[in-house]
Design a protein that fits this description.
Blueprint lengths: L1 H21 L22 E5 L2 H11 L1 H6 L5 H16 L4 H7 L2 E8 L2 E9 L7 H10 L3 E2 L5 E5 L2 E8 L2 E5 L2 H13 L7 H7 L9 E5 L4 H4 L8 H9 L4 E9 L2 E9 L17 E2 L10 E8 L3 H14 L3 H15 L3 H5 L3 E10 L10 E7 L2 H9 L9 E3 L2 E5 L4 H7 L10 E5 L2 E5 L2 H13 L7 H7 L5 E2 L1 E5 L5 H7 L2 H9 L1 H4 L2 E12 L2 E10 L9 E6 L9 E4 L6 E6 L4 E6 L4 E6 L9 E3 L8 E5 L3 E5 L11 E2 L9 E3 L8 E5 L5 E5 L22 E5 L2 E7 L5 E4 L5 E4 L13 E3 L8 E5 L5 E5 L4 E4 L9 E5 L8 E6 L2 E5 L5 E6 L7 E6 L4 E7 L4 E6 L10 E2 L5 E3 L8 E5 L4 E6 L5
Antiparallel strand pairs: 1-2, 1-8, 2-3, 3-7, 4-5, 5-6, 6-7, 8-9, 9-10, 10-22, 11-19, 12-13, 12-20, 13-14, 14-18, 15-16, 16-17, 17-18, 20-21, 21-22, 23-53, 24-25, 25-26, 26-27, 28-29, 29-30, 30-31, 32-33, 33-34, 35-36, 36-37, 37-38, 39-40, 40-41, 41-42, 43-44, 44-45, 45-46, 47-48, 48-49, ...
Helix pairs in contact: 1-4, 2-4
């Protein structure tokens, strides 16, 4: 069923897109009705979008979530269909402006057989459909009936298209189209539905559209997913929950947020209306929930007794009050328990029903409940009066544990979901009554509470909690990765089969939540949130992981896809295989090259056609690859004698005429064009030893300087043609870990090269041939030197790392940071610049971990992380969030989501 719906939706979108492509845009003076006039008031779900293909581009190219959904039946077809549609529309120059002009609607209606759907759009007035009809009949072989409706068969699926009063309606069922046209005729549409219009006016401005939910009819869509026998209960709860919701859609790479409002019918008695006189309450109970809580539902009250009176009114409206009162009488007779005297008086602001992720417990024993009490002494007294008398109370870590004769009173007090609490054990912690079907659960809750490790302190939940409201009246939370058993317990056979088949998919979603918070008597603020985390583990925010064929030592490079604008990852393993990987962790291609890459990965536009190539070098050759991994023209270019340092790629005049400078082991410096050919007129004279440094380039007083350092420490400055302009008498130290940095200023006297010897003594060689040495204390060997701006004063600072720590000093020799290490030698050191701060990254191959240290010397939240190689930090998905890409010692590539400290 789900597969067919997905298939139909995207084929219909393609048909609708053809309407846009071949229609001639004309001016219209006559006002035209909105497509809302053709949408019935009984519609269950309506999705509005005024730029669907911008939304599609973000979904397809910049979200990890869509990549996961493509693993499900039907979604791969949807992906390829929309890609084809996107390509088709880009051939027409007007499509983007056209789609900005009018809103489109995807509508789901309930029927006796489940659901039907259709796609609607309004055209400007006075369109001529002649050319469009030709496209339908000739290109798509559509057949037109006597009523003017077109039928089209695509991949053995029938679709119907109908035009009426500047509306186009597409659907796989004629019934949907007939209903839309009838609605257009009668006027009983969403455009005339006052309650729909009430929420419609609250919709915000968003690029990704809005979702409207009609609670009166939503059950038909999800009813076939509910266990047999529970369908009527599901229908009662959903159809009498509220009236309409509108939610603005916001998407990032690994999350979807829906925010908006839900309204009530003031003439009806709906469940959410039981909170109409209740202010939203905070989630204080979260400090009690154990860290392995998989799901929960939280109610927040400002006046519980007032809520209970409204709840009884709702029960009466839904014909449930009689059974409710019958159970009250049953408790009085069987247990001498009076609800209004023994339970209701001590309840205060919060109630929670939770479910544990604990494989040692059976399904029913994973449930627990938390109820806040206004009077701990009264609650204890009343609960003891209905406890099992023969059972000796147990004291665990100074908390008494008792067992109740029944838990039915709590379903009466809070709703039928509390029926999961059957004959519970209970204890009281900090004014919260804790109930659980299994005593071990109480022990776990007590331990977590005393250890200061409840759910609210768990890193994964804390991350999620940052994106939800701090207060609410109704709060539903589910960690799908830990709740498969819970979902299957109330699902139909169809849902159970889906979960069993797609457990890997489900476990890649870290959290789903729904919240409602009272805004006014008949209006509630609503928040829905979906968080994806495919390698979900405690305190590690990994978007995805990918195993390379073998280990790697390379710092991943982030490159741009010139077609989609998406960022991608380029990396090489230790067997000389290079990979291009999408920002969702999919290997786009891989190939072998002749050796290890020793340079950075740069992108250049060789042909000046807005298509980028990747350039880099190994010891043996210079490579230039297109985005498919193919060699460009005359590349790779073999390096005579072998390269001794990374290449430098220069575009002196910013005209696309690149120069590729290749230091060699023979002391030569090759100068190649961007076609791989030797540059004519190059006058460089071979030096006495191999060039050790990458060529460093600067312009001072309108003169170019190409700075080189050879393995004897001699420093030269050359012109563009290779002639010597500077020849230093002072010599710089050269060793295996040498790094050379050029700080350029307005004169030779104020510009310098900086490096450090193997003992950590810094050498600054000014370009007027003066050498200044800086000693920053006792630096161990081996060490790593970095010259970069840490304190963000636009001056490079001096950073040294050895087995004792990472330290940095300013240009004025003031200590900026000092982070101690426990006698472990770093293998790489890098600087990262963010918008408002900077940080130093340290990798430890021996420990297979990485650190990120902020500019004050404090460790970044959640570090250390797994992965001992050099790492990159980038906004991979263009969503304002930073990702860290690193490999571990086993060749596993991790992409972490950094804590937002920028």
């Amino acid at each position: 069923m789900v597969k067919r719906i997905i298939l139909y939706v995207f084929i219909a979108l393609m048909i609708g897109a053809l309407v846009w492509v071949f229609l001639d845009l004309r001016q219209a003076n006559k006002p035209v009705k909105s497509a809302l006039y053709a949408i019935p008031q009984s519609s269950s779900v309506v999705i509005e979008n005024d730029n669907p293909f911008e939304t599609w581009n973000r979904i397809a190219n910049k979200t990890v979530i869509w990549e996961e959904f493509k693993s499900l039946d039907g979604f791969q077809y949807a992906d390829s269909s929309l890609f084809h549609l996107d390509t088709l529309l880009k051939k027409d120059e007007n499509w983007e402006s056209l789609l900005r002009d009018e809103k489109t609607y995807l509508v789901f209606n309930h029927t006796d057989n489940g659901a039907e759907w259709g796609w609607l759009m309004k055209f400007p007035a006075n369109y001529d459909y002649t050319e469009l009809e030709g496209v339908l009949t000739e290109s798509l072989e559509a057949k037109k009936d006597s009523a003017g409706a077109y039928s089209i068969s695509i991949h053995e699926k029938n679709f119907f298209v109908r035009f009426k009063e500047q509306m186009v309606v597409v659907s796989p069922t004629e019934k949907f189209i007939s209903k839309s046209l009838e609605t257009l005729k009668t006027g009983k549409s969403l455009a005339s539905d006052s309650l729909f219009q009430e929420v419609y006016k609250t919709a915000g401005s968003t690029r990704h559209g809005h979702v409207f939910v009609n609670y009166q009819n939503i059950s038909a869509i999800g009813q076939n997913l509910i266990k047999a026998g529970d369908e009527e209960v599901f229908k009662t709860v959903t159809n009498h929950f509220a009236e309409w919701s509108v939610m603005d859609i916001s998407m990032k790479s690994n999350e979807v947020m829906l925010n908006g409002f839900t309204n009530l019918d003031p003439l009806d008695n709906q469940f959410l209306g039981t909170f109409s006189n209740q202010s939203p309450h905070d989630h204080d109970a979260a400090k009690i929930l154990p860290e392995n809580t998989a799901s929960f539902i939280h109610f927040g009250f400002s006046n519980y007794l007032n809520w209970y009176e409204h709840y009884r009114q709702w029960l009466e409206k839904t014909s449930q009050l009689y059974s409710h009162d019958s159970l009250i009488k049953e408790l009085e007779v069987n247990y001498k328990l009076t609800l209004e005297k023994d339970i209701l008086p001590w309840i205060e602001h919060e109630s929670v029903l939770g479910y544990l992720d604990d494989e040692t417990l059976n399904h029913k024993d994973r449930y627990f409940a938390v109820v806040k009490t206004s009077n701990e002494v009264l609650a204890s007294k009343k609960l003891k009066s209905v406890s099992i008398e023969s059972a000796e109370p147990r004291s665990y870590r100074d908390y008494e544990i008792h067992q109740l004769k029944t838990g039915k009173q709590f379903s009466l007090a809070f709703g039928r979901h509390f029926k999961a609490i059957e004959k519970p054990f209970y204890t009281i912690i900090d004014r919260f009554v804790i109930l659980a079907n299994d005593e071990r659960t109480l022990v776990k809750i007590i331990n977590d509470y005393l250890a200061g490790e409840p759910l609210i302190k768990k890193e994964s939940f804390a991350e999620f909690n940052e994106s939800v409201s701090e207060e609410s009246n109704v709060f539903l939370y589910c960690n799908p990765a830990a709740s498969a058993n819970l979902l299957m317990s109330f699902g139909s056979d169809r849902l159970d089969k889906f979960i069993a088949k797609n457990k890997t998919f489900i476990k890649k979603f870290q959290a789903i939540s729904l919240q409602w918070s009272r805004e006014s008597d008949n209006l509630f603020y609503q928040n829905a949130y979906l968080l994806h985390n495919p390698v979900y583990k405690e305190e590690v925010h990994s978007l995805w992981e990918l195993a390379l064929d073998t280990t790697t030592s390379m710092k991943p490079a982030v490159v741009k896809n010139h077609y989609t604008g998406a960022n991608e990852i380029f990396i090489q393993d230790d067997n000389n295989k290079v990979y291009l990987i999408s920002n969702t962790g999919k290997v786009l291609w891989e190939r072998q090259i002749d050796g290890q890459i020793i340079s950075e990965i740069e992108q250049i536009d060789v042909y000046q056609n807005d298509k980028l190539q990747m350039i880099f070098n190994t010891d043996e050759a210079v490579y230039l690859l297109d985005r498919l991994g193919n060699d460009v023209e005359s590349f790779p270019v073999k390096i005579a004698g072998g390269a001794s340092a990374p290449i430098t790629v220069l575009d002196y005049d910013n005209d696309g005429d690149h120069r590729i400078l290749v230091p060699t082991k023979t002391g030569d410096l090759l100068n190649l064009s961007n076609r791989g050919e030797p540059v004519k007129g190059w006058a460089f004279e071979k030096q006495e030893s191999a060039i050790k440094s990458q060529v460093l380039y600067t312009v001072i007083k309108r003169k170019d300087y190409l700075i080189t350092v050879n393995e004897k420490g001699h420093v030269y400055g050359h012109s563009r043609r290779g002639n010597v302009r500077l020849e230093m008498e002072e010599v710089l130290p050269v060793h295996n870990n040498s790094n050379f940095y050029l700080h350029s200023n307005s004169s030779l006297e104020s510009s310098y090269l900086s490096t450090a010897d193997s003992f950590g003594l810094v050498h600054n060689l000014l370009l007027d041939d003066r050498l200044i040495k800086k000693e920053f204390g006792d630096i161990h060997t081996p060490n790593i030197y970095l010259h970069a701006d840490i304190n963000m004063d636009n001056k490079p600072d001096f950073i040294l790392a050895d087995s004792s720590g990472v330290r940095a000093w300013s240009d004025d020799d003031d200590e900026l940071l000092n982070y101690e290490l426990d006698n472990v030698t770093p293998t790489s050191l890098n600087n990262y610049q963010f918008q408002n701060t900077s940080a130093v990254g340290v990798s430890f191959r021996s420990k297979d971990e990485i650190l990120l240290i902020d500019r004050t010397g404090k460790l970044w939240p959640h570090f250390p992380l797994r992965g001992g190689m050099p790492f990159s930090i980038s906004d991979l998905n263009d969503d304002g969030s930073y990702n860290l890409i690193v490999a571990d010692k086993n060749g596993i590539l991790y992409t972490y989501l950094l804590d937002d400290k920028m």
